[in-house]
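Fold it.
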Amino acid sequence: MKRFQSGLAVVGLLLVGVSASVADEGGLGGDVARLQGKWECRAGTSREFQVSLDVDGKRVEVLIQTPQGLKLQARGEIRLDETTSPRKIDWIDFSAGDFQAFPEVQGVYKIEGDSFVICNGGFNGARPVDFIPGDGPLADVVTFRRNDSAKVADASPSGEAKK
């Protein structure tokens, strides 16, 4: 049961930064465009959880697999604010299966090449001001690596996909 609760905590942490609503609600530009596609990382205190993140528009789907083979899936949205330093990310409207909705999670993020680094403040926790793990569930720093380069949008103003 403890591992299951730990897995739920990881889901909550990841949900904070996955669903994306940009400060510019008008469309998919900037970092939201750069995040489209599939991402993967290892999470948990011993990095024992395999986490997949699929960003489609402003919606995010997270799949967490435990070492015992348990799979937890959650869906929600992310809201990004590219005007701050570090940039802000909020995981909003997340839920997992028949479980109750997750509280909103605040965090910071950066995108460096094919890496998406997130530091979350945890459930109902304060937003971190740097990439240093805090206390409590989901208060961690995780680094996602791109799994699907076909949807990568470059940083050019035209936003054309890389080939």
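Residues 147 and 160 are 19 Å apart (CA to CA).
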